[in-house]
Amino acid sequence: MLRDRVVTAVVLVGALLGALFALPAIGWTALGALILALGAWEWAGFVPARPARRLAYAALTTAVGVGAAGATDLATGGTGTPLLVPCYGLAVAFWLGAVPFWLARQPAIAPPAAVLACGWIVLLPTFLALVQLRNLQPVSLLLFLLVVWIADIAAYFIGRRYGRRRLAPSVSPGKTWEGLAGALVATAVYALIWIAVWRRYAPAIIRELGLAPLWMLLLVQALALLSVLGDLFESAMKRQAGVKDSGRLLPGHGGVLDRIDALTSMLPAAALASMVHRL
Question: Which of 60, 71, 120, 231 suits 168 as a labelling partner, its CA being 20 to 30 A distant?
Answer without folding.
Answer: 120
